[in-house]
C-alpha cells in the first residue's frame, strides 16, 4: 500500500482485516520489517488514541517514531501558491512536507477541517498537497473528511465479535452533542461499511435527523433513514456518533428529542453491540448505562485501533 | 509489585533500595525484561526530573516509552459519575484510562492537587479512579498527596552516602517559599522515613513553623518539632522542603525569620548532608553557599531518581 | 569531539564533511556506538528540521533520544548568581543543567537570542553556563550567535554537489524579511566558509545592504560587498538568508529594492546553485521560481542536516 487515506487505497478490505487480527495474535512477528525505518507523526490537531495506538503499532513493527505536534511545536504553514509570504505563515507546505520526507520513511498526518467553508474542507487541499510534496507514503491520522484508521478498527471489531450465521445489520446512528464536530468519522465509517456491504459482509443503515444527511459521496448503497425507531429494529451493531450538518455546513441544527441511545432503545434491536470512536460525552451522546453495560464495545474497539494501525503500517512497509 | 503509589505498596523497602543500588552498578543487565513492553507516562502537570529519569529508567530496562502531556496535548477529563457531560470536560476518566491501558503495559501518572479543597485532594479521587479503570499497573509520578519515586530516591541517597556506625539522624526541615506548594513531597518523605525508622534504619525528625504541621496520617512515629535550632542539633541529614499549610489548607502562613538553612546553621549539625528534591529557589528556600558547598547532595539525589524508577519498574515488570 | 558549538570545536572540517558523506552511504554502520547511550534534546525555542534530523541521526547511531521542550514543558531558568529567587524563575541553571547531565550522555541545546541587548546575546551566557554545569558533552542546536549543525550541513551540500575543477565561488546574500531575525545562521555560515576558504576549499563573499554588516569576529578573510550585482557575478553558490542588523542591534533597516534572488538575477552567475537553511518565506526572501527551479538545493540541503548531525554525534560518542 503506497498511501492510506481512504478505503479506496485498500485493495482488499477483508485481507486487511484478517491481517489486523493476525497481528493481534502475534504482535511482534514482524520486527525486522520496520528495523531502521522511521515513522513521523505530524499532528496539526490534538490526539490521544490515534497517537498512542499508531506509535505503539510502529514500535511493535520495530520502527522508530518521531512525533511532531505542529500546532504547538511548529509553524503556521502556507498552502497557496503565488502569494508573497509577508503575513502570518512562516513556511510553505512545499518545503515543510518535503523536509519531513527527508527524515522519515513513512509519515502520518492529522489535519482537521475548519468547518467554515465546505468546499475548502472537502477539497482536502492541505492533505493532498502534503502527500504530493513529501515524497514518502502517507497514512491518514484523520483528515478534514475521513478517519480511515478508525473505520478499519471498527470493521475489525465487527468481524471479531460477530458470531451470527447471517450478515449483521450495522446502523450508524447520529447522536446529540453541544459542539459542531467534523463529518470525518461518519463519512469514513459509511464509506467502509458501504464497501463491506458490497462485498456481502454486512447490511448497512444510516439514521440521522433531517438536515444531518452526509454527502452522498460516502453513502453509496447505504439504507438512509430519519426514523431512529425503525432504523434500530433488529440491529446487530449500533455505531453512535455525532456530526455537524453537511448541508448547512458545520451547523448544529435542532433535532427531535430522544435520539440518545439508552438501554430502553436497545430493546428493539437484536441485543445490539454499541460502538463509539471515543471520546464520548456521557449521557449527552450516549447513556452511561449503555457504556457501562454488556453491550458496549467501545474499549475493545479502541484497543483494535492498535491492530488496525499495525496492519496498515505493515502493508506500507512491505512496499518500501 | 502491582502498583507503586505509596510506601504501603512496597513489601520490603530495604530490598527495593538494594535493588536500586544494584541497578546503578549494572544499568543494562535486565533489558530482556522490558522487551516489547510499553510504558505510558501521563502528565497532567509539568515535569523535568520525573519525566527524564523515568523515561531513561524504562529505556535501560529495554522498554518502549510513550509520553502523553495531557495538560497540553489532551483533554479535560470528567471524574464524576452521573453527570450529563455538556460542559467543558470532553472525556470521562472511565474511557480515557481504559483506553490508555489498551496501549500500554504499565502506566505512570502525575496529577497535582488543586490546593483548594483539602478533602478533595486527599481523597486522591483522580488517581484512584485512573488506577481502577486503566486495568494495568500504575506507577505514581506524583499524586495530590505523595511522590513515592522521590522518596525512594531519597532513601537510596541516604543509604548510599551514610558511612557512620550509628543510625543517622534525618531531619525534614520546612523552608520558606513565595508560592503555595503541595504537601506531596514532605508527606511522602515522612511516610518513607517513618517506615525506615520502624525498621531501625534511621531516626527521623520533622521541624516546621506552627501551622505547617503535616497530616498525622504520614508522620506516625516521627519526632515533631517547631524549634529549628533544637531539631538540627547533631543532624546527619537535612531534607529541605517547602510546603503550604495542611491545617489552613493550601495557605502560606507567616513564619519566624531565619528558617533558611545556611552554613551557619550547619554548625550545630554533625556536618549534615543537605538534600532537596529540586527545583530549588536559591537563597529563598536554601542558601547558595550550602547548595554549592561540600554538604549538598542535591545533584546526586536527583541522579538517584533514575535508579529508584528503574528498581520500581523492574519490580512491576517482574509481575507482568 | 568534546563539544560542538562552533567551527572552532572541529579539528578538521574536511574530515568531518567526509564522515557525514560516508554516513549518508552507510547510515546504520555504527549502531553499536550509541547502544545504551542517551541523547537529551533541550529546546528553549521551537524546532522542526533540527529536532527531527538530530533525533533521526541519534536513532541511526543506536542511541536513545529524550526531547525536552523547556519553553512549554519546563521552567523559566535563572542564570544569574547571587540573586534571591523570589521572582518568576523557578530553577537555577546550575541545578537544571546538572540534573539533565545525570540522565543523558550527550545533550543538545537550543537557545535563541532576545535581540534586545547585543552584549548579553553575544556573551552566550546561557549556553556557556549550561555547558559548564551539565557535565556532559553539549551539541549546539542553535545558540544566540551560531548554528553550527546548519553550517556543517551547508558545507556538506557544497562538497557533495560541486563538480567543477576550480574552487567554487560561494556568496552569502542577505535577503529581505518582515521580522527581525537572529544573526546566528549567517554568523555561523560565514565562520565555516572563512575556515573552508583558508583551507583552499572555496572562495567566500558576503553581500548585504549598508548597516547589515555582520560582526567581524565571524567574517575574517571574507570578501565583503554591498553591491549585489557585483557580488553575484560568476557565483557558483548563493546562500540566501535574512538577518537583522548587528550594528543597530536587532533592528530591521531600510534596504534598496531588488535584493530578492530571482531567475533574472541568476543570469550573471555561473548557473549558481541556490541554498537556504529554511524555513523560507516565498517571494519575500526568495522567489518561488528559484525555489521550484533546477538551481535550488534547499531540500537536499535540509536532508543533509541528518548526516551533519550524525557525523557530529558519532565524533562525540567516540570520546565517551
Automatic annotation (TrEMBL), chains A, B, C:
Organism of origin is Pedobacter gandavensis
Known catalysed reaction(s)?
A: N(2)-succinyl-L-ornithine + carbamoyl phosphate = N(2)-succinyl-L-citrulline + phosphate + H(+)
Identify the EC number(s). Answer: 2.1.3.11
Annotated ranges, domain Aspartate/ornithine carbamoyltransferase Asp/Orn-binding: 205-315
Residues that span the membrane, as ranges: none
Tell me where in this chain the Aspartate/ornithine carbamoyltransferase carbamoyl-P binding domain is found: 2-160
Instruction: Please tell me whether the keyword Transferase is annotated for this protein.
Output: yes
Q: How does it assemble?
A: Homotrimer.
Give the family this protein belongs to, as stated in its UniProt record.
Belongs to the aspartate/ornithine carbamoyltransferase superfamily. SOTCase family.
Sorted alphabetically, the keyword list is: Amino-acid biosynthesis, Arginine biosynthesis, Transferase
Domain of life, per lineage:
Bacteria
Annotated residues that bind N(2)-succinyl-L-ornithine are located at 142, 177, 241, 281
Query: Per its database record, what is this protein's job?
Result: Catalyzes the transfer of the carbamoyl group from carbamoyl phosphate to the delta-amino group of N(2)-succinyl-L-ornithine to produce N(2)-succinyl-L-citrulline. Is essential for arginine biosynthesis.
Give me the gene this protein comes from.
argF'
Q: What InterPro entries has UniProt attached to this entry?
A: ArgF'-like, Asp/Orn_carbamoyltranf_P-bd, Asp/Orn_carbamoylTrfase, Asp/Orn_carbamoylTrfase_sf, Asp_carbamoyltransf_Asp/Orn-bd
According to the entry, what is the taxonomic lineage of the organism?
Answer: Bacteria, Pseudomonadati, Bacteroidota, Sphingobacteriia, Sphingobacteriales
**Residues annotated for carbamoyl phosphate binding in this entry:** 47-50, 75, 110, 147-150, 277-278, 305
Q: In which pathway does it act?
A: Amino-acid biosynthesis; L-arginine biosynthesis
User: Which SUPFAM superfamilies did the record assign?
Assistant: Aspartate/ornithine carbamoyltransferase
Q: Indicate what this protein is called per its UniProt record.
A: N-succinylornithine carbamoyltransferase
